[in-house]
Automatic annotation (TrEMBL):
Signal peptide: none
Protein name: YaeQ family protein
Organism the protein comes from: Duganella alba
Lineage: superkingdom: Bacteria
A Pfam entry, by short name: YaeQ
Length: 180
């Protein structure tokens, strides 16, 4: 018998001063049995960074054909594809072929090893941005995961702060590859 996803509910209030985006989102996250709390929370941060009314969580780990998040236009074309973790070259190249913009958010302490092995293979992807999130910060985020969550996310000058009212985590990011 297959294991089912665990459902998490999050109210995410975003104040993104870099994009002048201020909104509160009621989100439902399905956590795959093989997914960690840390990875799920990185998906939530990726949502906050790119938030808008068309951005949605996908089947992700349940369907290898879909990224973790995407934004489609009214015709169904993929405008934005977001992968979390350390996807392989094939996944990235396929996403770059199908999407207008592709973002990969890596977050493990071993991200630099993964990127060193992959960088030359995806260098030709002009629509690809790869961002490494601070591993210590994302580990803290994983500890904040609860079945029902309320967060405030502030983004200013490229810095990200996520708080649940009790604890605040500053998430620094390093762009490993920028879209050209």
């Amino acid at each position: 018998m297959a294991l089912k996803a665990t459902i998490y509910k999050a109210e995410l209030s975003i104040a993104d001063m870099d994009r002048n985006y201020y909104e509160t989102h009621q989100l439902t996250l399905a956590r795959h049995p093989s997914e960690t709390d840390e990875r799920m929370m990185v998906r939530l941060v990726a949502f906050a960074i790119h938030a808008n009314e068309a951005l949605t969580f996908t089947k992700g780990l349940f369907d290898v054909e879909e990224p973790d998040l995407w934004q489609k236009d009214l015709t169904g074309a993929i405008e934005l594809s977001i992968e979390v973790g350390q996807p392989d070259e094939k996944v990235i190249l396929k996403a770059c072929g199908r999407s207008e913009h592709v973002y990969v958010y890596s977050y493990a302490a071993t991200s630099h090893i993964w990127w060193k092995a992959l960088a030359n293979k995806v260098e030709r992807c002009k629509n690809l941005t790869v961002v490494d999130l601070d591993a210590a910060a994302t580990e803290q985020l994983g500890k904040m995961a609860q079945r029902t969550m309320q967060f405030q996310c502030t983004i200013q000058d490229g810095q990200i702060w996520l708080t649940d009212g009790t604890e605040t985590v500053e998430i620094t990011r390093e762009v490993l590859k920028a879209e050209r």
